[in-house]
Amino acid sequence: MSKPDRAAAVLDMGGTEDDWKIRVTDLKQYAFCPRVVYYMYCLPNLRPTTYKMEAGIAAQERVTELEERRSLHAYGLQEGERRYYVPVYSVTLGCVGQVDMVIETHEGGERRLVPVDFKLSRREPGRHFQLQLACYGMMLEEMYELPVPEGFLYFIPARRAEKIALTKRLRRDARAYVEAIRAMLQTQRMPPPTPRRARCVNCEYRRFCNDVL
Ligand code: SF4
Q1: How much distance in Å is there from the Cα of 189 to the middle of ligand 1?
Q2: pLDDT tens-digit series, residues 81-130
Q3: Are 126 and 174 in contact (CB under 8 A)?
Q4: What's the structural domain count of the chain?
Q5: Do the domain assignments include residue 157?
Q6: Is 17 part of any domain?
């Protein structure tokens, strides 16, 4: 890989914290409920460390160990070099993040990058996971000037990799989410609760949302 650091250079040249405000993981949270992202930024000291979060970190560490011993077959590749926990940033999107794994491959005659996002979920890939992956793809393209036509969601419990085409539409939707989050944070106006109130039942911020249950 080796090519950063147009973005790092921008930071050195005086990029402000605001330029880097949006974390890619916020897209997933925003799709779940915009108010969660509002709480995370506007009331940053409130977030508890849940058992689920701790379990997620431990599971990711385990899957990284196992990855080292596995072939790239799950990703439809014969050859490639894996890198873990790759930091990413984008001047264009104004986002920062970290990709669980990036595979660099020349297979098929084209040098390209493949982001892989490890998930604890047992369910089918929701749109929110795909948006996050699209953001990683765009950020990698910007940093390394290599194409990222697809990525994978790796479901840890099922040990299954799902290929996601990073289409124009998915990228456009991801950009729209980033802009919506930025607009919400600029106004600091609390958004309405999610209309899907079943999500509130196990939400870690439920005690702050007096208007939902
Ligand atoms: S309790 Fe419901 S409305 Fe409030 S942040 Fe959680 S999911 Fe959103």
Answers
A1: 15
A2: 999 999 999 989 999 999 999 999 998 888 999 999 988 877 666 788 99
A3: no
A4: 1
A5: yes
A6: no
